[in-house]
TrEMBL record:
Record-linked PANTHER family: F-BOX DOMAIN CONTAINING PROTEIN, EXPRESSED, F-BOX_LRR-REPEAT PROTEIN 21-RELATED
Protein name: F-box domain-containing protein
Family annotation (SMART domains): LRR_CC (SM00367)
SUPFAM superfamilies, alphabetized: F-box domain (SSF81383), RNI-like (SSF52047)
Pfam families tied to this protein: F-box-like, LRR_6
Entry's transmembrane regions: none
UniProt domain F-box: residue ranges: 11-58
Superkingdom to which the source organism belongs: Eukaryota
Length: 338
């Protein structure tokens, strides 16, 4: 009987990829994956991993691998320090969750040199008002700021507006706690943050307030003080009464999320809690870890789908490059980067 020769399975030589495509793959990985994993694969990748353009966007939110391990915070801080060294003063987008400290804020201030356009902090209780303001004062061209479940004073919100005159998008999410957004203490100046926004952020296009204690007075001030506002989220701001007079004023708002709308356009709230369900009965029976696991599986499916599309495009670009169609391959890489 004649034996059948089995053709050996072809394996991709990743080192043969054009540098443009490898750079694109690294950009999709993000700074944490590059520093913690990709750079250790081989010498060429280690060299590429030091390219400053890869560190223009530093997103260090929701590190899934160790999300419940508080002992890993120092490791994440080390990753951030290394990324700061490599960005060469061109950092444009900076996002952190849980492990940000005053030290990291001061480092960010040192390396940004007015380059920062977007800042997002989630559950960064260790960051002081002073450290935040030092960073903002050094970056007057910021257009987007998000402070989610942080603990900054109302005066600091005013300083954010003063330091960032070009601000177009601002998110201020209060801490999630029982009675949040509705309990008013006699000593509370409940509209202080709203008035700071109204008086010092006139160019806002998007405003997301969540679990804020503002009243109709604060909301009316925002509508008057922010004439370019197109998106307004008032989720769980239960001290607001949307009467006829207010309804007339927010007619120009293209997208309005009312206080009792439980849907949220922010995927994660606090330390990894997934907001994929609006059913309170179901939520009360499922732990935070279950939410995270469910979300992680869903994200893996989406990631696999995206990686499949990316693989097909990369294969096409490699084939074009081998066949000598360098210009077509370059154009495909350019489209992938968009």
């Amino acid at each position: 009987m004649e034996s059948v020769k089995v053709k050996p399975e072809e394996t991709r030589n990743w080192l043969a990829l054009p540098q443009q495509i490898t750079t694109l793959i690294f950009q999709k990985l993000g700074v944490m994956e590059i520093i913690a994993r990709a750079q250790w694969v081989c010498s060429p990748w280690r060299k590429l991993a030091k390219e400053p353009t890869l560190y223009r966007c530093m997103d260090m939110r929701n590190p899934w691998q160790e999300i419940w391990d508080i002992n890993a915070y120092d490791d994440y801080a080390d990753l951030a320090r290394e990324a700061f060294k490599r960005c060469n003063g061109d950092l444009e987008e900076f996002s952190m969750e849980n492990f940000a400290t005053d030290e990291l804020m001061y480092l960010a201030r040192y390396v940004t040199c007015t380059s920062l356009r977007c800042l997002r902090l989630v559950c960064c209780y260790q960051v002081s008002d002073e450290a935040l303001m030092k960073l903002l004062e050094n970056n007057p061209f910021l257009e987007e700021v998000e402070l989610v479940d942080c603990d900054f004073k109302a005066e600091t919100i005013e300083d954010v507006g003063r330091s960032c005159p070009l601000l177009k998008s601002f998110r201020l999410n209060g801490e999630e706690k029982e009675g949040s957004g509705s309990d008013i203490d006699d000593n509370d100046d409940v509209d202080e943050e709203a008035l700071a926004i109204a008086n010092y952020m006139p160019k806002l296009r998007r405003l997301h307030l969540s679990r804020n204690k503002l009243t109709n007075t604060g909301l009316e001030a925002i509508l008057n003080g922010c004439p370019y506002l197109k998106y307004l989220n008032l989720q769980e701001c239960f001290n607001i009464e949307l009467n006829a007079e207010l309804r007339k004023k927010y007619e120009r708002i293209e997208k309005l999320v009312v206080p009792d709308d439980l849907a949220d356009d922010y995927e994660f709230d606090g330390a990894g809690k997934y907001l994929g369900s609006n059913d309170e009965d179901d939520a009360s029976e499922v732990s935070n870890e279950d939410y995270v696991l469910e979300s992680y599986e869903e994200k893996n499916k989406e990631k696999a789908k995206e990686e499949g599309k990316l693989k097909l495009c990369i294969d096409g670009a490699i084939k074009m490059h081998i066949e000598g169609n360098v210009s077509d391959a370059t154009e495909l890489v350019r489209k992938l980067a968009l």
